[in-house]
Amino acid sequence: xxxxxxxxxxxxxxxxxxxxxxxxxxxxxxxxxxxxxxxxxxxxxxxxxxxxxxxxxxxxxxxxxxxxxxxxxxxxxxxxxxxxxxxxxxxxxxxxxxxxxxxxxxxxxxxxxxxxxxxxxxxxxxxxxxxxxxxxxxxxxxxxxxxxxxxxxxxxxxxxxxxxxxxxxxxxxxxxxxxxxxxxxxxxxxxxxxxxxx
Length: 198
Known about the structure:
Elements: E1 3-9, H1 16-24, E2 31-37, H2 44-49, E3 55-58, H3 64-74, E4 79-82, E5 88-89, H4 94-103, E6 109-117, E7 123-127, H5 134-139, E8 149-152, H6 154-159, H7 170-179, E9 185-195
Parallel strand pairs: 1-2, 1-4, 2-3, 6-9
Antiparallel strand pairs: 4-8, 5-9, 6-7, 6-8
């Protein structure tokens, strides 16, 4: 199964290499990593050009939601995810993600644990355990684990992608729309690191 990782980016040259390497150095080969950059003016372009395996575009867009949808439209994978340009994946986790989908054909949405870190990457806290469901997300939007979510590509056509009008909480809205009436399957391990800073 091919996994497509979408990374929206704008002026994240300080962090994006770590993001790219976390995808590149996984224990699974059938991955495409698509970076959709909004026309960065920092060192982002120089970083992207160092990684010939990447698919990337850089052009002015209408914000993060627009960039994510551009990436979704380019994605060819059976499994889709989005990883922001200042976050990164746990080592050797995408093989487990692919294996879970292969062994659970009923699984449409999969998530795992997430570790929150500061700007320098120092651990702050984590969200762990099999706690997510549609009802739990409605009750508590703050428990979204966006970079630790994966879903089958069929849900993109069904959902139409993220809502381009949203500048914030587009992930919360998206997961509610694709999760309504579905079970969120859980992979019991840390999937990603989410950077928190001003």
